[in-house]
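Input chain follows. Return structure tokens only.
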Amino acid sequence: MADETKIAMRCDKLHRYLGKDEGRVHVLKGVSFEAQAGNVYAIVGPSGCGKSTLLYLLGLLDQPDGGEIWINGRLMSNSVDAVRTAARGEHIGFVFQFHFLMLEFTALENVMMPMRKLGRLTPEQMQERATRLLASVGLSDKTHRLGTHLSGGEQQRVAVARALANQPTIILADEPTGNVDPTLGRRLLRLFIELNKSGTAVIIATHDITLMDQYEARRLVLHQGRLHIYE
């Protein structure tokens, strides 16, 4: 049995339906697993199998039709929106396949946004942390560049830095290397792996099994709505 003190996230018997009437599809069929701090998990499967749907549930961006989600030992799946939003800001960093930056703001401002919302740091501390995070993804010279003046790969790196802004205990990444070149993709994955040293649980949804095997991620295969765990 896993050490409960090390479990950053746990889901139990998650069900999710999408669509209506005759188009209603049972996407997730009783998905259960737990993510321990300091481990990397790769949820693999073909496009359309429900990987993104599962990550959105785990990230408290959507609610399951059945089942439970626990974050750091606290039941969150049925909480009100305000509680879910607060937990997401404090505990979860999300890297979307498409970066969703605020393009009218600079790279630095984008990374500072989650910190402003959480409200724990002074403006000076937020700027210093955002600067360090951008340096960690190789963007030291782009901190004051507007999102509209960044390449797609640079925007994705800003999104990774933004996900790390509040020192989350859980990183959720949805096909984070899908829109960048292979070299940058490997660099981003190495950055995620480095997070294990600080005890972060990293959950990555990807179709690239070979790439994830290089980083010794624990493989979770999503097939026909069910999650199969390979140790």
